[in-house]
Automatic annotation (TrEMBL):
Span list, region Disordered: 245-272
Species of provenance: Pararhodobacter aggregans
Lineage: Bacteria, Pseudomonadati, Pseudomonadota, Alphaproteobacteria, Rhodobacterales
Pro residues biased stretches: 255-265
Transmembrane among keywords: yes
Keywords tagged on the record: Membrane, Transmembrane, Transmembrane helix
Transmembrane segments: 42-61
Name of the molecule in the record: Uncharacterized protein
Superkingdom of this protein's organism: Bacteria
Amino acid sequence: MSVSDALSRVLAMPRALAESLVARTRAFRGASQGSVSVELILTLPLLLWALAATVVFYDGYKTRYHAQMAAQTVADIMSRETDLFTANYIEGLNDVFDFLIDSRFPTRLRVSSVIWDSANERNRLQWSYATRDLSALPEDTFELMQAGDLETLMAEFGEDGSFTFAGAGAQMPVSDLPDRIPPVLPGEALLLVEAFALWEPFAQVGVGQLRFTPVVVVRPRFAPWINFEGQEPVYPEADYEIAWTGSGNEGLPDPTDPTPEPTNPPVANRTYSFDDGVTSGLSRSTITAGGPSGSYLGPFGTETWTTPVTVAVDLQADHATANIAFDLLILDTWDGYANQYILPRGDTFTILMNGVPLSVDPFINYSQAPYDNARVSTGYIGNSTYRVSMTRTRTGSSFAGGGSNDQLWRVTLTIDNAPRTFSLGLSAGVDSAISDESWGLDNLTITASNVGTGTAAPFVANAANLLTADPHNRFNRYSGCPEYRIAAPWLTMTRADLTTGITMQRQASGGTSLSSCPNTGGWGYANASPSLVLNYDNQNVTSTYNGLQIRLNDGNSGYTCDTTLIIRDPNGQWYFNDDYTGWNAGVRMTNPPSGQYVIFIGTYNRGSCNTNLTIDRWTR
């Protein structure tokens, strides 16, 4: 072989090698043969790990969920107590906790009563008890947590570092414990329930031992606070301001705002005294002499429930404020919400705009709280904001010629950004003949002011969610999560009125699951529309022995109408209750602030049913 041939073969070797590798790669890619035993040996460990990890992760998540649900159940049980807590009682609840989570691992409970320390602006312990030799919370827990000194706090639980309940780490509260405690009302204490579960995986899959620590905070339902046996009472403060985190009810029109002064001369000035017999623009023309100031329009009765007396209003301007005032005569034996004499809607008077209620007010023919109170109601209708006020100016005689005491109320209605034309409706829900229960109208005035300056209402209900009207008060109802800005009837009560209280029939209804409404909490079903807005005045009185009670009763322990109750208080805090007495819902409040309480009446199961709503006083 010549030198040139040898050199050519050497140069051709890389190319041949590359072609050989490509051919072998193609053959490997297309091959379908293999060794099952070899592949099994390679993949079996991974498959076994994946199977074990799936079971471990499932068991861990299931344990955490069951611990949380069991802790909520234990806290709910404790919230219903009124007597002193004892060691035996709380130890027994730990057994209940174990049963609920089907415990296969160590558990403990720690229960503490928490009040507010206004001087230092932090929570304070009344008492604390822990089960099965777990350490109670140290007295300075919240002081140390406020200072961020968790190291000192852990040292107070000992020096044991083991993963047992003797270990300091296992006994420590969660680091954000103060943030999980809602504002504490004056004169009250909250029950803080910490549950502990030390969970260990049955197989080592990369997840080690874990401590599950659900925390539940509840208000005692039937007492402002509950002490522990043998513990010297530490009384809650009763005269501090609350640092609320809620947004309050500023989304509602403020009923205390004065009517703004007109910015330009009024237009569309119309006055009816009815002494001259003029009734143009009104749907009824019946005039009666002998009223408190001469002739009046009326009397009218139960027929106006279906066919209201209407007034055609033309403001002669756009984006103006409508100012409407009149004297309302309540004649003879109105019965308010005295259930034995009335229809479910009560003996009530309704003001409507284009057929939609603005206010519904009950009246009674004798002096009784809260019927004597001046009334107010506000809300949004379309792009307008309205305010209704009623003040009684005369009572105690049959000045209209009936057989019982008559009443005279001065009514004012302002509608900001009112439509240019609309129909004002007046309607009564009485159930007797005109000779027994009726009403009249006098000294009606209609003016428009602030022409062109009206602004659209800040809230408009979603028309796509409109349901049928409420059968008891005819207010529009909407589907969805509870929305406190939707218009509803108002009721004005003072703290003194709670002694007498008031009961009215209401329809509980719900089509939206509260589980999808995170702001309200709770369960069951509700609609977006409130059933009532309670305009409450606490008269600057505080007490830890009685307070505001809002409760429902179907007359059958809730078996006929299983209700839920959702309330938004003046500070934007939500209250929920399912079973207060039997399956009837209810809520107690100690030292409730003055303002508007927006009440939603839902159902445990989807649907609707009738129940009685009572607002009165609870007493220890």
